Amino acid sequence: MTIDGRLVRESIDPSALVREVARSAHGAIVLFLGVVRDVNDGRAVAGIEYTAYEAMACSELRAIAREAADRFGSSDVLIVHRLGELSLEDASVGIAVAHAHRDEAYALSRWTIEQLKRRVPIWKQEHYVDGTRDWVDPSGRSVAGVTP
User: Fold this and answer.
1) Rounded Cα distance, 32 and 76, in Å
2) Strand 91-99 and strand 76-82: pairing?
3) How confident is the model at residue 49 (pLDDT cuts 50, 70, 90)?
4) Domain, as residue range, for 39
5) Number of domains observed in the structure of the chain
6) How many C-beta atoms lie closer than 10 Å to residue 75's C-beta?
7) Cβ of 27: how many Cβ atoms within 10 Å?
8) How far apart are CA 61 and CA 63, in angstroms?
9) What is the chain's mean pLDDT, rounded?
10) Confidence (pLDDT) at 146
11) Helices (H), the chain
12) Can you give the pLDDT at residue 140?
């Protein structure tokens, strides 16, 4: 059984996430990876830096994993979020969930990422190709000039 949420500073390994939640009782494993894209809100992005209130973020990630497992009847929910500077195409978040049935696994994964976006104190600062940087709220809107 894996019900966990954690912050990491190294690259996220998708295969390792899947291995952590794989069990013979599961008929479905859903892996979600959020990756750094090259454009946001019409601006060319060069990279992103993630920071967090780490103690609270870890606690909330674990709480979300427990709630997700209880809500959807799963014994395996893993949430991993990266901190630090990331380049284009790097995975910033990985969510691996497993369930006996695919519909529940998909719903579980979707619910988990939405809760993470709403509740976990992780902030991102986008680094743009033109050399500027802006903090962006979890919904993806730029909050230029505002620091967490």
Assistant:
1) 14
2) antiparallel
3) very high
4) 2-132
5) 1
6) 15
7) 12
8) 5
9) 93
10) 46
11) 14-21, 54-72, 102-119
12) 53
Q: Is the pLDDT of residue 139 over 80?
A: no
CATH of the domain at 113: 3.90.1170.40
**Rounded CA separation 57/86 (Å):** 19
Look at residue 73 and tell me whether its pLDDT is greater than 90: yes
Is residue 147 included in any domain, yes or no? Answer: no
Q: Quick one: pLDDT band at residue 147, thresholds 50, 70, 90?
A: very low
Task: Report if residue 140 sits inside a domain.
Answer: no
- What's the pLDDT at 144? 53
At residue 58, does pLDDT exceed 90?
Answer: yes
Residue 128: inside a domain: yes
Distance, CA of 148 to CA of 135 (rounded, Å): 8
What letter represents residue 67's amino acid? Answer: E
- Collapsing DSSP states into helix, strand and coil, what is residue 124? strand
Burial environment of residue 105 by CB neighbours within 10 A (0 to 12, 13 to 18, 19 or more)? buried
Say what percent of the chain tops pLDDT 90.
89
| Residue 139 within a domain | no
- Cβ partners under 8 Å of residue 124, min gap 6: 48, 49, 50, 51, 92, 135, 136
CA angle 84, 87, 88 (to 5 degrees): 140
